[in-house]
Each structure stands twice: as structure tokens, then as C-alpha cells.
Amino acid sequence: MHVSRRVALACGTLLLFVACSKNDQAAKDSSAAAAAASAAAPAPPPAPTMADFAGKWDVVATPTAGKDTAVTKYTLTVADTSWTIAFPSGLKVPMHATISGDSVILKTGTFASQRRKNVKVSTEGAVRLQGGKLVGMTTAHYQGAGADSVLTLRVEGTKAP
Questions:
Q1: Residues 120-133: what's their mean pLDDT?
Q2: Residues 81, 99: one domain?
Q3: pLDDT of residue 15
């Protein structure tokens, strides 16, 4: 009888030892994996500056929905915080630009719409750099247009030569 107790006690001790060593090894493995994951994670890209957007951009603004599918083309000139839209008609519209995260928030005052005759419009939107292009969304707010007073446009610009 003493022998079976000793065997049972020895087996129990052996099981406890194996279980503890597995837990220690698992803890070491998970610590090593966490350290490797944090070391392998790339650093986030630096936040853009206004200088990153500097230059002239050939921009196409395309409505995202509705019957009006015509594109609006313009040249966007960026010189630090001075952003200006130049339409083919010769109209130049200054924009207020501020950086927020990876995007530039843009807003114009009221100007003569290039899409709708005899209508005033103001715009607001955001653009960012993606793959060397300027991409984003703009919302146009038309004055006195009733139910058709808002138009959302997808914006894409390529750097002018």
C-alpha cells in the first residue's frame, strides 16, 4: 500500500512539474511573440505638412450621385497656406486650408458657380495625398437651389508638369 501511495504522489508531482513548466514556457513564448510583433510593427508615416501639397494640381471633380454627371475641371495652386482654384473661365477662388491628421480641410467663400448658370455656390471638403495623387471629397452648397442645393463630388488631382 505504501508503494502505490508513493507512485501516486510521484506521478502527481511529475504532472504538477510538467504543467508548471508548460505554463512558464507559454508565458515566455507569448512574451517573445509580443516583443517581436511590437518590434516588427512599422512606424506610422509622418503627418503631412503644407509643403507636401505645394505646386499646381490638375483637378477633376466628379458628382457622386444624381442626374448631373458632368465633371468640373480646374487648376489648384498651393503655396503653403495659400490655396487657389483657377477655373478655365478665368475665375480664381481663394480657399481656406488647414491640416487635420493626414488630410487638408478646405473651404471657399461664395462664388459664381461654374456648373450652374447665375447661381452662387460655396464649397467645403477634404483632400489627402494617396499614391502621388490628391484625392478627397467636396460638398458644394448652392444658394437658392431648393431641394437641389447640395452636390457631393469626388476630387482627384494630378501634379501639373
A1: 96
A2: yes
A3: 42
Take residue 135 and report the three cell numbers written for it.
Answer: 484625392
Inter-residue long-range contacts of 137-140, CB under 8 Å, 24+ positions, other chains counted: 137/64, 138/61, 138/106, 140/113, 140/115
Structural domain containing residue 14: 1-41
- Give the pLDDT confidence of 29-63 residue by residue, as tens digits: 666 555 555 567 888 778 889 999 999 999 999 99
Residue listed under C-alpha cell 495623387:
133
Q: Number of helices and strands (H, E) in the chain?
A: 1, 9
Q: d(Cα 128, Cα 28) in Å, to the nearest integer?
A: 43
Cβ-contact 75, 83 below 8 angstroms: no
User: Residues 74, 24: one domain?
Assistant: no
